[in-house]
Design brief:
Length: 438
């Protein structure tokens, strides 16, 4: 399938089935803003919950944080974002279209009006989204929506350390929105002006950085393979050259994924030295140090930063697991999602909707399963159509209550990927679904 065609199909499925809608659509939309619909929010929450479970709850050395979106502007001064968080912007003098200078061929014609030699000199454009705090719109009240979640982990470092009494190495994790006034957003939810990140700042002794970097390198690969179910041959690692790294970073790896529109950054892993804590210590005048309980030595810890984009995770998952099979009437589309990511873990149907005894039994099963899992109810059309509909949204199992159920207390469970049907006792359904989630 041509890549643009695949991308169009994913976008269309997302809209049709309620994963992702164009933002503010009834007002003609708002460029590059997207809303997660009823199924999209489930998929996204499943990703975030799995991440939190794996990297916070299941580890002894990571604790969570949920900080304010708008922080004191001094944070961005100290972090260097005010001075350097910018992209080079050029404008076409003819049609006024704006581009990121590092993403286009400056000597080529303007992509919009096709005129040649019309670009202005590149100037640096700060990507932070500005606002005003309080009623007066003057310079003194300017504030910024955070362009990354990371800085809160540095700013709250001392509070976390004092309240949790952690020993090095330890990390602070956060999931939340970040905002960037991107010059050229696009490619569906790949690059937007507001997005979510899952980030960890992992504090270490300087001499430990190579070991910790390698540990996170492996942990990130393990997440992509085992939680997102990505085929690792679609993931590429880019060792970022010194010239392209942030000046304070001694090593950075970008994990790139083969999205339908090209191989692009999915996640990043960076060794940020003690740059951030040192800057905040100097700017705030507060001591941001760790005291070694054995040697009593005090020092500013170094940090390894693994970072994950939530929306790019959703897009990689959709791209990876979108499957079309067969031809003509036997053609089917399904999302081969790992069961733990699927919005619905199962769907329950009565074979016929005009048979009250089947409907009652199916409702009983549906309500019992719903105590544990998100399950779908469907009694429209015939069973074939219901299978088709559930396949398209990635529901791993379809459970049908038929006349035999009333005799044997068992149901037909049909597998999304193989189409195989097995007979399962009703009282074994919970554990059958639970097994698929391991
Ligand atoms: P890019 O080079 O694609 O602009 P970046 O290197 O600036 O990304 P980071 O600052 O490392 O990105 O941000 C960490 C993660 O946040 C990225 O790996 C990506 O998953 C996600 N991310 C960054 N910018 C956006 C955006 N505009 N829309 C959606 N996700 C984003």
């Amino acid at each position: 399938m041509a890549n643009q065609e695949l991308m169009d199909k994913i976008v269309s499925l997302c809209k049709r089935r309620g994963f992702v809608f164009p933002g503010s659509e009834i007002y003609g939309g708002m460029a590059n803003s997207w809303d997660y619909g009823p199924l999209g929010v489930e998929l996204k929450n499943n990703i975030k919950n799995l991440w939190w479970k794996r990297f916070v709850h299941q580890r002894d050395d990571v604790v969570g944080l949920d900080a304010a979106l708008v922080m004191n502007p001094k944070v961005w001064q100290a972090s260097g974002h005010l001075a350097t968080f910018s992209d080079p912007l050029v404008e076409c003098k003819n049609c006024h279209e704006r581009y990121r200078a590092d993403q286009i061929e400056i000597s080529a014609p303007c992509q919009k009006c096709k005129k040649e030699n019309t670009f202005t000199e590149a100037k640096q454009f700060n990507l932070m989204l500005k606002t005003f705090i309080g009623p007066a719109e003057d310079e003194a009240n300017v504030a910024y929506f955070r362009p990354e979640t990371a800085q809160a982990m540095f700013v709250d470092f001392k509070n976390v350390l004092d309240t949790t009494r952690r020993k090095l190495p330890f990390g602070i994790a956060q999931i939340g929105k970040a905002f960037r006034n991107e010059i050229t957003p696009g490619n569906f939810i790949f690059r937007t002006r507001e997005f979510e990140q899952m980030e960890i700042e992992y504090f270490i002794r300087e001499g430990d950085w190579e070991r910790a970097f390698e540990e996170w390198h492996e942990a990130m690969k393990d997440w992509m393979k085992n939680d997102l179910g990505l085929d690792m041959s679609h993931v590429h690692e880019l060792e970022v050259e010194a010239a392209d790294r942030a000046h304070y970073s001694k090593r950075t790896i970008d994990f790139e994924y083969e999205f339908p529109f090209g191989t692009k950054e999915l996640y990043g892993l960076a060794y940020r030295t003690d740059f951030d804590l040192t800057n905040h210590q100097n700017a705030s005048g507060q001591e941001l140090q760790y005291r070694d309980p054995e040697t009593n030595e005090s020092f500013v810890p170094h940090v390894i930063e693994p970072t994950w984009g939530v929306d790019r995770s959703v897009l990689a998952v959709l791209s990876e697991h979108y499957v079309e099979e067969g031809e003509g009437d036997s053609k089917r589309v399904y999302l081969k999602l790992p069961a733990k990511l699927a919005p619905y873990k199962a769907a329950v149907f009565p074979l016929l909707k005009n048979k009250p005894e089947l409907v009652a039994k199916a409702q009983e099963i549906y309500k019992a399963l719903r105590q544990e899992y998100l399950v779908a109810w469907d009694d429209r059309g015939n069973v074939g159509k219901r299978y088709y509909s559930q396949d398209e949204i990635g529901t791993p199992f379809c459970i049908t209550v038929d006349f035999e159920t009333l005799e044997d207390n068992a149901v037909t469970v049909r597998d999304r990927d193989t189409g195989d049907q097995v007979r399962i006792a009703i009282d074994k359904l919970q554990s059958y679904i639970a097994d698929s989630l391991k």
